[in-house]
Write a structure and sequence with these properties.
By secondary structure, the chain is α+β, with helices and mostly antiparallel strands. It has one domain: Transferase(Phosphotransferase), domain 1. It is 28% helix and 18% strand. The protein is built from four helices and eleven strands. The strands form five sheets. A three-stranded antiparallel β-sheet has the order 3-5-6. A two-stranded antiparallel ribbon has the order 1-2. A two-stranded antiparallel ribbon has the order 4-7. Strand 8, helix 4 and strand 9 form a beta-alpha-beta unit. The longest helix has 20 residues. It is elongated and about 70 Å long. The model has no long low-confidence stretch (mean pLDDT 84).
Length: 153
């Protein structure tokens, strides 16, 4: 972008704080690396506030978002609704990058059933696991804030 399109104080701040990724070359400001953010509504909050039709669409898009990430060998790690958000256009996006990992590094398996009441209420699993991720295959319904979304999604 032409250097003249930037206010001098903004240009000074960019050069001071990000000079290696925002140099000036031949009168142009070059942005080599940039992170962009967009404002999203956390999916868990969105689902509690919206209509059934909009919630169904968001739940479908939540699943599609996970499939799209998997297609690029990315697994979100935590599938909690709070780690996904809804954009102003109604699209679901993943925004919590703390637990990202390669899908090929994951070990998906069924959780063994608890053998006692103590195991059932224990805060951590009663079996060894490194970074194993259980499969929610047996969950046929998606429960959200008193709503049940089954195969209609």
């Amino acid at each position: 972008m032409e250097q003249g399109r930037f206010r001098p104080d903004l240009l000074q701040e960019l050069l001071r704080n990000a000079g290696s990724s925002v140099p000036i070359e031949d009168g142009h400001v070059i942005i080599r690396h940039v992170y962009m953010e967009r404002r999203v509504r956390p999916l868990n909050l969105y689902l509690s506030e919206t209509s059934d039709a909009a919630a169904r669409a968001a739940v479908r898009d939540y699943g599609q978002t996970i499939r799209d990430l998997a297609a690029t060998n990315i697994f979100p790690g935590d599938l909690f609704l709070k780690n996904f958000g809804v954009t102003r256009h109604g699209r679901v996006v993943f925004y919590d990058y703390d637990e990202l990992c390669l899908l090929t590094d994951c070990n998906f398996r069924e959780l063994p059933p608890p053998t006692s009441y103590e195991e059932e209420i224990a805060p951590s699993p009663g079996f060894p696991c490194a970074r194993a991720i259980s499969s929610p295959r047996n969950s046929r319904a998606f429960l959200v804030y008193g709503r049940t979304f089954a195969k209609s999604c």
